[in-house]
Structures are given as C-alpha cells and as structure tokens.
C-alpha cells in the first residue's frame, strides 16, 4: 500500500475525527475545516482552515494532495432551511470535485447518504422495492437533504466520466458514535417507532472511508455502508410486516433465513469492491451499554 497525502474536509466533525484517526497511521492526513477539533485531538493531522463554499480556499487545501475525503456539509438532523442544504451540500461538493480535478488529485471520496433513496422518509407512497435494499434500488428523495446528496453523486459521476478522477460515493446509514449510542437506543426503543432500524458505527464507517481511499481501479461507484444486522431485537421480516407492511415482491429469503436479523440495507457491494466489512453486533452493543449504565447507577 502506497502512503498518500489525504485531505479530509470537515475533519473536525463527529465523523471526521474518526476518519482522520483511521487514516493517520498509514497516510499523511490534512484536516480541512473551518476550525480545529474542539477536543484538541488531531491524531497527527495537519489543520488547514478551509471553507468549502470558497473555491479558492478548497484549491489551497488540496494543493499537493493525492486524495480527498469530502465530509464537510450540513447534516440531516441539523434541521436547516431547504435552500441551505442544496447550496452547501451540492455547491460544496462541486467545489471539491472541481478543485481536485484542477490540482491533479487521483481520487475523491464523497460522503453521500442513505437519504439518497428517500426510504428513510417513511412516506406512505414510497416503500422498499426489495429486501435487502441495495445500490440498484431506485432513488426517490423528497426532502432537500436527500436531494442534495443525489445531486452530489450525479456531479461526481460527471467528473469521473472525463477520466481524470476516480470518484467513490459512500452512503452511510445512521451513524452511531460512542457518545450517541444512548440517544440512538432511546430513538429505536420508542413505542410504535415507524422506521427501518439501520445503523453503522463511526469506527466501521471510518474504515470504509479508508478502504475507499486505498482501493484502485474504481472509476466511479456508490456504496451503502451499514451493519450486517438491524437495531431491532425481533427477526427482520417479522417486524417489517408488522411495522412497515407487506413484504416487497423481491426478497432474498435465504439471507433472512440464515441471519434472521439481517439488515434491510445490503452491504455486499462494499464488501466485494472495497474489501471492507462491518464488525459490529447490535445485541452486544446494547448489552454493553446497559451494563455500563447499571454500573454507573451503582456507584
């Protein structure tokens, strides 16, 4: 494996800090963000103040780099104005792609989202067409955040067509950080929760970004990045029928027979093409969290 100079936009953010930590041992990493990480843990990364809405700022940050991981943007749960999602997430991605091409980088890894498909919106007119849901599934986002990610992927593919950049889009599921596991459990355990119970740990997601930087030979592709299991305690097909409704016509019955709690979003493509695999087990995560909570209460 060749050591690379990797720029991480948004490296001071919740996910960015994990991505930089995963990269730092094998690559020279630059954190391109508006401000350094608040906790002061830079994991050896050099900080360059960067505003992805300023093309010249991005050009300066990417100078001399081999690859860029683009994480900077407005997140789904921030509740921003619709036009802000489109402006920052779409235009910021364009700036990174344009600057990367101009500076002669070999690769751009875009942080897309599960929201690109629109299924997390749980609209009555839009339900999964297959189980598991994979990258061949139709995308029908309505919310502006999901639309912004779809636009960014289209832009990424347009740059890849020119043959100067390799562009990989990762679509993380709901990201669980160590400090947010309790909040996530409160969410999924709420009575009558109408959802698809998907997740990915920040550590596993960070390894996926590292794998995307290191893999060669992919001119353009998109990948769902999720755990093998769901965060629901029941068998997947059982809670799906009860919470979502009738199963789609296309169901991989053998998958759910082999692993009754298999995820509704598939990760086979990422495993095959990126050489990545998740390591988490939600039952074990839940048990460890409960044990820690009991121990804390007893002290």
Automatic annotation (TrEMBL):
Q: Which InterPro entries match?
A: Epimerase_deHydtase (IPR001509), Lipid_A_modif_metabolic_enz (IPR050177), NAD(P)-bd_dom_sf (IPR036291)
A Pfam family cross-referenced in the UniProt record is Epimerase
Report the domain of life of the source organism: Bacteria
Per UniProt, residues of the NAD-dependent epimerase/dehydratase domain are 6-179
Q: What is this protein called?
A: NAD(P)-dependent oxidoreductase
């Amino acid at each position: 494996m060749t050591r690379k100079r990797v720029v991480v936009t948004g490296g001071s953010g919740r996910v960015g800090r994990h991505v930089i930590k995963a990269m730092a041992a094998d690559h020279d990493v630059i954190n391109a963000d508006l401000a350094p990480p608040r906790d002061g843990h830079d994991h050896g990364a050099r900080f360059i103040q960067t505003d992805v809405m300023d093309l010249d700022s991005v050009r300066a940050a990417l100078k001399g780099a081999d690859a860029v991981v683009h994480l900077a943007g407005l997140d789904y749960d921030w509740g921003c104005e619709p036009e802000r999602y489109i402006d920052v997430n779409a235009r910021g991605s364009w700036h990174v792609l344009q600057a990367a091409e101009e500076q002669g980088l070999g690769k751009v890894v875009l942080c897309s989202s599960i929201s690109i498909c629109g299924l997390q919106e749980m609209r009555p007119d839009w339900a999964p067409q297959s189980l598991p849901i994979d990258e061949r599934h139709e995308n029908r986002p309505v919310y502006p955040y999901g639309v912004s990610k779809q636009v960014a992927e289209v832009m990424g593919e347009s740059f890849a067509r020119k043959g100067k950049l390799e562009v990989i889009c990762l679509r993380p599921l709901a990201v669980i950080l160590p400090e947010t596991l309790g909040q996530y459990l409160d969410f999924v355990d709420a009575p009558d929760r109408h959802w698809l119970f998907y997740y990915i740990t920040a550590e596993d997601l960070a390894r996926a970004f590292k794998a995307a930087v290191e893999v060669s030979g992919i001119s353009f592709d998109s990948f769902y990045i999720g755990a093998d299991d769901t965060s629901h305690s029941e068998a997947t097909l059982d809670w799906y029928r009860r919470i979502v409704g009738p199963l789609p016509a296309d169901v991989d019955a053998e998958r759910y027979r082999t692993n009754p709690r298999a995820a509704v979003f598939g990760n086979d493509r990422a495993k095959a093409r990126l050489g990545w695999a998740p390591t988490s087990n939600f039952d074990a995560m839940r048990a460890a969290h409960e044990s820690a909570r009991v121990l804390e209460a007893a002290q």
